[in-house]
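Run log // design_07
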């Protein structure tokens, strides 16, 4: 399979808009796992699911919740494997959520790439309250002693879910967004998780298209409530 994206011409979901939100400071892991399977996402204690949203040009975009099957052996494209090999000089670690000054600095630098809906603080994505609404973890990626990427993940009984990823703009040639996704998928598969949820993408071309390039990717159909291979 080549790396070309499938270009859709017709919506895969009901044009009736879905927009649901709620807040909670406590939720069970199995409950969150079930909500993920129904197209929900969260930023800290704010939970939401939306079927459509507007971009910076006021275009209406169809939202695609995505997930990857973590069946061994994991399959990647040639370009993804090239990115993985290119970054073997880096060190990484998984640890409980710990927002340091270094992470605040990385986040501030990372958000300079956005011109629309620019987040103000890392706490737009994770709760400042420890273990609320459930424990959150982070993958940290280092070049020598410098933090150059960090992702926030939910580790659940049967699945892994990404909340947010940031990287050093000076290291953009490393494609660290793809690298950290491979890192998360490898961890999920090694711990016998069934799926990895990378978040939303769009039916139409957008800056999140790299998520649709992975093999064994499925999308959630808002109309039927089922997952289908993309």
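design_07 sequence
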């Amino acid at each position: 399979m080549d790396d070309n994206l499938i270009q859709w011409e017709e919506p895969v979901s009901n044009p009736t808009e879905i927009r649901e939100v709620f807040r909670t400071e406590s939720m069970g892991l199995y409950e969150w796992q079930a909500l993920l399977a129904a197209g929900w996402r969260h930023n800290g204690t704010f939970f939401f699911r939306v079927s459509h949203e507007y971009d910076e040009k006021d275009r209406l975009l169809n939202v695609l919740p995505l997930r990857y099957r973590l069946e061994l052996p994991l399959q990647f494209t040639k370009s993804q494997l090239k990115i993985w090999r290119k970054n073997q000089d880096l060190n990484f670690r998984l640890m409980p959520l710990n927002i340091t000054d270094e992470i605040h600095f990385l986040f501030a630098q990372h958000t300079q790439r956005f011109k629309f809906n620019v987040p103000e603080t890392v706490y737009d994505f994770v709760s400042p309250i420890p273990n609320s609404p459930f424990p959150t973890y982070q993958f940290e990626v280092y070049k020598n002693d410098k933090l150059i990427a960090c992702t926030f993940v939910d580790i659940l009984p049967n699945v892994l879910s990404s909340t947010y990823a940031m990287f050093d703009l000076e290291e953009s040639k490393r494609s660290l967004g793809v690298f950290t996704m491979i890192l998360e998928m490898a961890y999920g598969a090694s711990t016998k998780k069934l799926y990895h949820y990378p978040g939303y993408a769009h039916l139409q071309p957008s800056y999140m298209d790299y998520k649709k390039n992975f093999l064994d990717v499925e999308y959630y159909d808002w109309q039927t409530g089922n997952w289908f291979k993309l």
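Confidence is low (pLDDT under 50) at residues 1-14.
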